[in-house]
Design goal:
- Strand 1 (3-4) and strand 2 form a beta hairpin.
- The chain folds into 3 domains: 3-45, no CATH class; 55-147, DNA polymerase, domain 1, CATH 1.10.150; 163-345, hpI Integrase, Chain A.
- The longest helix has 22 residues, at 116-137.
- The chain has helices spanning 28-36, 55-69, 72-86, 100-113, 116-137, 144-147, 163-172, 175-187, 191-195, 230-243, 265-273, 280-292, 301-304, 309-314, 323-336; strands at residues 3-4, 10-16, 19-25, 202-203, 208-213, 222-227.
- The protein contains 15 helices and 6 strands.
- The protein starts with a strand and ends in a 10-residue tail after the last helix.
- Helix 3 (72-86) packs across helix 5 (116-137) and helix 7 (163-172) crosses helix 11 (265-273).
- The strands form 2 sheets. A 3-stranded antiparallel sheet has the order 1-2-3, with helices on one face.
- The protein is mostly helical.
Length: 346
Amino acid sequence: MPYHMKDGRWRGHKMFAGQRKTKIFKTKTEAKLWEAGQKEEEWQRQEEQTLTVCLHDVANLYLDYSMSRHDKRTYEAKRLAFKRLFSVVDAQKIPDELTLKLALFVLAKTARAISNAAANKDRKHLSAFWEFGKKYHGFPLLNPFQQIERFPEKPGNHYVPPADDFWKVYAMADRADKVLLLALLHTAGRRSEVLHLTWDDVDFAHKKIRLSTCKTRDGSRKRVWLTMTSDLHDALADHRALCGKTEYVFTSKTTGEPYSDRKHFVEHLCKRARVKPFNYHGIRGLSATLLAQKIPVHEIRSILRHSSLTTTERYIRSLGVTTDRLNEVFEDKKAASKIIPFKAAQ
């Protein structure tokens, strides 16, 4: 039997062999007539009437897709976005029922309960889910999440420390952690990229270092060789001589295993150095800020490993492309901060 929807329309539905077919009508009579006219053998021939799927089923398929292509943090972010979506929207709804108004209500609730930044992240993940549905499961062409403007985010969410503060933190670190901090600064590397470095990623002969990331459009791993500064080259050479035969460059002092995330390491050093707290991403921002003073944006997009030049421009500009230019930038900043070179600071 048809049932009455909240917006006044009527939905007819029919089940054959565990498969559900549904269609929405203005009146109950139209819905009943449609139900009565449904014949199992005719379903495949009725091109204008396709078998619909519910949001929940496609969401599970999309999470399976994400698990095979994205890293664990991205997968978890998508899972939480669905959790918030289905706390508001009936998971059994069909895609046609998720209107622009309803999508805005979902994101606005997240913005109020958590933050605008969280709402923007959910918007990105749910928009990607809708594109997946369009490509593989016949979702409507209009992506409701894509149509919603980003929520304004307060400035200052991404704190970039002054160079002096970075070097104060550096001075508080022990020998091995000094190497880690220098690698973060001189490569503008993301936390996972630097923590997961292996010695196969370090080419001492050619002064190259290889970073890899899954932050790509299709979730595939991308590896990029970067030029090492002289300071970083020497620091890593000394570090290798002292740390023995290990596969990974940076390993736990207690377990000898590679770090999984070491999430609050930088913040703890900030507290000891008595400076305003910053994190790994703040160091990446500092690298880009320092290098932007001497190197044009278009030269550094590949080194920051951004998918577009716009992203690089938005992210505080650029990195260098040759050893001389990298040395010039970082050595000048150390001199200005009155910090003695790494090897003498052990």
